[in-house]
Each structure stands twice: as C-alpha cells, then as structure tokens.
C-alpha cells in the first residue's frame, strides 16, 4: 500500500511540475501494436482537446481479428527536450473475430515526438492487455505489448 501511495504522489508531482510541450492539435496515420501474440496494424487518429489532454482512436487488424480502440492520454513536456512529451492513459479495446468478440482494458504510458520542420509525429508506448471475460479461463493480463505510431500532423 505504501508503494501505491508513493507512486501516486510521484505521478502527481510530475503532472503538475513540468510544462506542456504539445506541438500539434490533430494527427492521423499508422499504428503498429506488437509484442506477445499477433502484430496488429491499422489507421489511428489523435486529437488534443486541451494542451495536455488527448484522445486517440485506432482500428487495428491482424490474424483474422479486428480491434476497435479508444484511449484517453494525459501529455506533459520533458524539460530540455523540445517537442518530446511523455504521456499516460488508457481505454477500452474491443476485439471482433469470427464467432465472437472480447473486451479488454488497455493502460498505456509512452513518448510522443513531433519532428522539427516536418508535419510528422512519432510515438512509442507500453500498452498491456487486461482481458475481462471467461473465454480464456477467466481474466488475463498480457504485459509484453507495445505500440509504435507514425502520424501526419494535420494542424
């Protein structure tokens, strides 16, 4: 319990002490989700509705499965690293496949970088799967999942 309280305290300090470095409002492009299990690829769009808060939607395909995902992300700049944000967040994920569907929760933490003098944003994050259901013998946690996003900045 003490470790959880310490983690919440440190995250609060980090969230309130660093300046925001968000360099764009909307970006769309390609998302690759990889790690344990199938590699998933598909379109993604990110929209900042405030200086530090964004939503990202993805439709990913792989191994005869389609994933519909939506994430809330809280971004903060890294002092001394121009155009580089760290972020954390998460959201729901719905897997659609022949014969059924599955529901997941996906926490995430990562880095987002807007290239200088080019309308390109690149992101890398850790995004584990938390399966909720009975299909695979109950709930399941898959830690080794990562995301790589390459997006064209629209504005």
Write down the Rg.
Answer: 16 Å
Q: Please give the count of helices.
A: 1
Residue runs with pLDDT of under 50 for 5 or more positions: 1-10, 12-20
SS elements, strand count: 10
Question: What's the assembly state of these chains?
Answer: single chain
Beta-strand content bin: over 45%
The domain tally reads 1
Strand order, largest beta sheet: 1-2-3-4-5-6-7-10
How much helix is in the residues? Answer: 10-25%
Give the H and E element order: HEEEEEEEEEE
* Main sheet makeup: 8 strands, antiparallel, barrel
The CATH class designation is Mainly Beta
Rough outline: elongated
CATH topology: Porin
Whole-number mean pLDDT? 87
Task: Explain what this protein looks like in three dimensions.
With 155 residues, the protein is mainly beta. It has one domain: Porin (Beta Barrel). The chain contains one helix and ten strands; from the N terminus they run H-E-E-E-E-E-E-E-E-E-E. The protein has one helix spanning 2-17, and strands spanning 26-35, 40-48, 53-62, 65-78, 81-97, 100-114, 120-126, 129-132, 140-142, 145-153. The protein is elongated, with a radius of gyration of 16 Å. It starts with a helix and ends with a strand.
């Amino acid at each position: 319990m003490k470790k959880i309280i310490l983690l919440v305290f440190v995250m609060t300090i980090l969230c309130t002490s660093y300046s925001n470095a968000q360099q764009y409002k909307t970006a769309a492009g390609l998302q690759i989700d990889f790690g344990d299990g199938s590699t998933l690829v598909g379109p993604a769009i990110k929209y900042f509705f405030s200086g530090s808060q964004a939503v990202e939607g993805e439709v990913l395909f792989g191994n005869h499965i389609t994933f519909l995902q939506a994430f809330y992300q809280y971004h903060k700049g890294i002092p001394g690293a121009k155009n580089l944000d760290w972020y954390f967040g998460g959201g729901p994920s719905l897997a659609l496949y022949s014969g059924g569907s599955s529901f997941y929760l996906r926490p995430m933490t990562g880095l987002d970088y807007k290239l200088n003098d080019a309308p390109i944003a690149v992101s890398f994050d850790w995004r584990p799967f938390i399966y909720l259901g009975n299909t695979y013998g109950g709930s399941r946690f898959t830690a080794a999942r990562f995301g790589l996003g390459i997006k064209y900045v629209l504005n």
